[in-house]
Amino acid sequence: MEHDLFLCYTGADKSWTRNLAGLIEQHRMWNRQLKVFFDEWDLNYGLNIINEIDQGLKSSRYVGLVLSPAMLEAPWPTVEWQSQIMDDPSGKSGRILPLLLKRFHEDGAPIELPFVLKPLKRFDFTDPRRFQVELDHLIRRLTNQPLPRGPVRARALGSALLGQHEPGQEAPEQTEEALTSNLLPVLRIPESLFSDFTTASTKHEIWSRVAGTTPPFFLYGGRLYSFVQPNATDNIFKPFVSGRQAKVEPTTVWLSDHDNAKQIVGLFNNSLRRHGRDLSIWTAKSDRSLFYPPVFCMT
Questions:
Q1: Does any domain span residue 267?
Q2: Exposure pattern of 175-192 as b/e (b: 16+ CB <10 Å)?
Q3: 68: domain CATH number?
Q4: What is the pLDDT of residues 214-262, one digit of tens each?
């Protein structure tokens, strides 16, 4: 299929949906980026809108319904999602993914979900503080990854980061949550994570305005996180943060939480690759965890 997710929404929720689509497309599945059908990006001028939407629905592995009072009352999004329900009224395929954005009308009355959607387990985006948690769940679904099982302990994860494992345990599998280096040992990791409120909603907003290489960072809960100290003279993130609400947190605190650990280990891996590039050490395109020493030409 051409798309991984078709986003069905109404204009009142367009800004939020655009941000969600951009964040999804920053993730990978196997050897490619995830791809979202978002009308603003995929409906070109001069084309038949109805035909293009029909093709977008047919070419998408999943259909995401951005549920809000406005969306449930809008006729066009209703036509889109109802056409898909007709093909699978019992929801056996799991193709319809309800994304709950707003739980109440402006007058405080709860929204009434159509009875065909009520049995489906929903992604709950109603609390902005849990946005990243729900986004991780959504990415896991889109990439066909199983739900995590069992607790994650900071000590065990920290040992995995250092290439060790506890007695009696098998060595951890090499997943996105593992910090790996086949060439050089990882002796220690950064102790502190710095953050501040940011106006940027996607990484592309920052990349497009920064000349040269950007230090590794991620966006979470309206804040920009990195290993760059806020008061550093060469901090290129200063134009994108408030400068008044900087915060420093121990990385061990983030490692003790399963969802937060995924974020910060990704930052560790990006930092390791950046350091490798500075030393002319490169990673394989097909496996970013494999590092190769520089090749020197002799003349």
A1: yes
A2: eebbbbbeeeeeeebeee
A3: 3.40.50.10140
A4: 899 999 888 999 999 988 888 899 999 988 888 999 988 888 776 678 8
